[in-house]
Amino acid sequence: MLTLVTGTGCSLGALIAATTSASRADPFIAAATASAAFTLAGQRALATARGPGQLSTNILDELFLLEVSTFSSTISHKIKKRRFKPRNTHPVPVAVFLRRPI
After folding, report:
1. Do 55 and 8 form a contact (C-beta atoms < 8 A)?
2. Which of 11, 16, 50, 85 could form a disulfide with 34 if both were Cys (CB 3.0 to 4.6 A apart)?
3. Rounded (to 5) percent helix, strand, coil in the chain
4. Nearest-angstrom CA–CA distance, 62 and 98
């Protein structure tokens, strides 16, 4: 249903720009973090949306409600499940879109 919502690619691009500017150390890690956060928010939003109009609002709400601990544990679990071993271990720059600073 995500393909029926206008502006999701633009939202992802804005989130990538925000995380990249907040974490100037490694743009790839920042972009991957933003993509993972948007994917998690989209999955959660899809679980409660009844249609495309509600999905776009739910995605924004889920990005707003995303907590560092929940995000980190979910992403860590998925990385271990796929046996992906990152080269760098930079901190995850997700505080950009959280409602309170870390």
Report:
1. no
2. 16
3. 70, 0, 30
4. 10
Residue from 31, 29, 26 nearest 13 by CA: 31
Per-residue tokens: 22: 């907040």
Residue 49 C-beta-side C-alpha neighbours within 13 Å? 22
pLDDT tens for each residue of 6-61? 888 899 999 999 988 887 778 888 888 888 899 999 999 999 999 988 999 999 99
Measured between alpha carbons, how far is 69 from 50 in angstroms, rounded to an integer?
28
Radius of gyration of the chain from Cα atoms? 14
Q: How far is CA 55 from the centre of its chain?
A: 15
| Cα angle 81, 44, 94; round to 5 | 75
Residue at token pair 């939202």 = 11
Note the pTM of the prediction, 2 decimals: 0.71
Whether the CB-CB separation of 52 and 18 falls below 8 Å is answered with: no
